[in-house]
Amino acid sequence: MPAPYKPVRDDPPGVPARRAALKLLDAVLRRGQALEGALHNATQGLDNPSDRALAHAIAAQVLRRLADLDALIDSATRQPLPDDAKARFALRIALAQAILLETPPHAAISTVLPLVDGGPRKLVHGVFGTLMRANAALPEVPALPPAVAARWEAAWGADMVAAAGRAIADQPPLDLSLKDEDVEHPEGVSLAPRHVRLPAGTGVRAAEGFGEGGWWVQDLAASIPARLLGTGNGRVLDLCAAPGGKTMQLAAAGWDVTALDVSEARLARLSDNLARTGLSADIVVADALAWTPSAPFDAILIDAPCSATGIFRRHPDVLHRACPRVIAEARDIQAALLARAADWARPGGTIVYAVCSLEPQEGEAQAAAFLASRDDVAVVPADAAELPAGVAPTADGFVRTLPTMLVAEGALDGFFVARFARNP
Ligand SMILES: C[S@@+](CC[C@H](N)C(=O)[O-])C[C@H]1O[C@@H](n2cnc3c(N)ncnc32)[C@H](O)[C@@H]1O
Predict the structure, then answer these.
(1) pLDDT digits over 95-123, tens only?
(2) How far apart are the C-alpha atoms of 169 and 139, rounded to whole Å?
(3) Ligand 1 probe mutation, 262, 285, 359, most atoms within 8 A of CB
(4) For residue 103, which of 45, 76, 108, 335 is within the disulfide window of CB 3.0 to 4.6 Å?
(5) Ligand 1 center to residue 264 CA distance, Å?
(6) Ligand 1 atom showing the smallest separation from residue 289 Cα
(7) 3-state SS class at 199
């Protein structure tokens, strides 16, 4: 694909935001970057925060509905456009605005055509016009990218794929974890101790009292790993800690927490979160694959880096970035982290392993390989009483959350969590 993304002087109003959306899509789909990670570079030069928000919204909608948008485009072209064709990118952006973001069609196309100046303007204009005249619409239930659908159907079945598709269309609710059992919190539904769920669309700042530090945003599924460590009982190592959702849970539960992460920038957010909530932890900036503690811990939480496919509802870019190579690389790092950290638990100590992934290689298969590799660890099965209502342990005693669960309540992210004891 030729490089079409240089800032262009004298762009008509509205075009720079679309150019930024194009840069974001290029970063995610061609270079495998995270959408949030690409934001800073892609929106440089957009002075207006509403333009930055629009670029982000367009890119996120395209990533959510990519398979359906491409099917529409293919229905209106004689020959399929290559995946990385400039015309396909421009059409995705124009159609996402017209169909999903309620942009008037003339504005959606006129702000996109300058992106293909000197190129397939006529084709883009023609295909867009054909689709608009035909009142083109997207299917009510979004399709997953074909490779993801095939992988998840093989692992979890057709119902899970359908539920995941529906989850893409629904805005997820806002889950808060509470610092204290009896902290005052806004109206909402509680699905577990120290949890409240607010309706989809609730702004974080709008949650009354947010600034007072009584709660933090954390998907219900993401709160499960720390729940499996229970009430504070000594020293815990939170091994991949930043930005600190689980560190705060552990500190609030009374643990003496050491929060370690390799990313200084993400640890700065963890420090801010601790300051805001009035909780404390010892912070260590280190690569867990090179670091060694001076004394064993009573418990270790390994919230390992992963493909992150379980958080596709809020981060649709993961659906396009988590290819088999990325999943295999993450699996190898997780195995190395597990092998190393298990030696740091005291005899009788607890190890909790978690990933926000819907890939069995990073979850069930990883836990099985870990158990097979050591004779000093055993599973400590999760108990239903420790879990949110509606989530049950698996037959192996692990926790696996799927898009098919708690659907009527607003569902939850995809997580795998396993609890082990060392030398039990
Ligand atoms: C899933 S995120 C952690 C989320 C965090 N536990 C929370 O609840 O907010 C994974 C973290 O692992 C960190 N990480 C990746 N490789 C690491 C390594 N080799 N050593 C330490 N931390 C690492 C990343 O910087 C990232 O912050």
Answers:
(1) 999 999 999 999 999 999 999 988 899 99
(2) 10
(3) 262
(4) 108
(5) 11
(6) 19
(7) coil
pLDDT of residue 209: 59
C-alpha R_g of the chain: 23
SS3 of 175, please?
Answer: strand
> 400-411 burial string, b = 16+ CB within 10 Å, else e?
bbbbbbbeeebb
Quick check: 302 and 351 in contact, CB under 8 A? yes
Structure tokens belonging to residue 129? 């016009």
Provide the pLDDT for residue 323.
94
| 3-class state of residue 44 by DSSP | coil
Return the axis-axis angle of helices 49-64 and 15-25, rounded to nearest 10°: 40
Report the Cα 385 to chain-centroid distance in Å: 27
Which tokens belong to 346? Answer: 């005291």
Helix (H) or strand (E) holding 195: strand 195-198
**Residue 270 in contact with ligand 1 by CB distance below 6 A:** no
3-state SS, 372-408, equals HHCCCEEECCCCHHHCCCCCCCCCCCCEECCCCCCHH
**Distance from C-alpha of 44 to C-alpha of 149, rounded to nearest angstrom:** 35
Question: Looking at the DSSP assignment, which residues form a beta bridge with residue 195?
Answer: 177
Other beta carbons within 10 Å of 224: 26
Give per-residue pLDDT as tens, 275-305.
999 999 999 999 999 999 999 999 999 999 9
Q: Is the C-beta atom of 413 inside 6 A of ligand 1? A: no
For residue 334, give both structure tokens.
């997780």
Quickly tell me which residue has 């037959």 as its tokens: 395
Distance (Å, whole) CA 130 – CA 187: 47
**Cα→Cα distances 42→63, 240, 314, Å:** 16, 28, 19
Q: Which residues contact 242 (CB under 8 A, 6 or more apart)?
A: 259, 261, 263, 266, 267, 269, 270
Instruction: Verify whether ligand 1 is closer than 6 Å to residue 26 (CB atom).
Output: no
How far CA 373 is from CA of 35, 288, 342, 347, in Å, comes to 36, 20, 11, 17
Mutate to test the pocket of ligand 1, among 246, 261, 264, 314 (most ligand atoms within 8 A of CB): 261
254 phi, psi to nearest 5 deg: 100, 5
236 beta partners? 257, 299
C-alpha torsion sign, points 130, 134, 137, 139: negative
pTM exceeding the 0.70 threshold for the entire prediction: yes
Pairing of strands 195-198, 174-178: antiparallel
Q: Is 356 a catalytic residue?
A: yes
- Residue 244's φ and ψ, nearest 5 degrees, are 110, 10
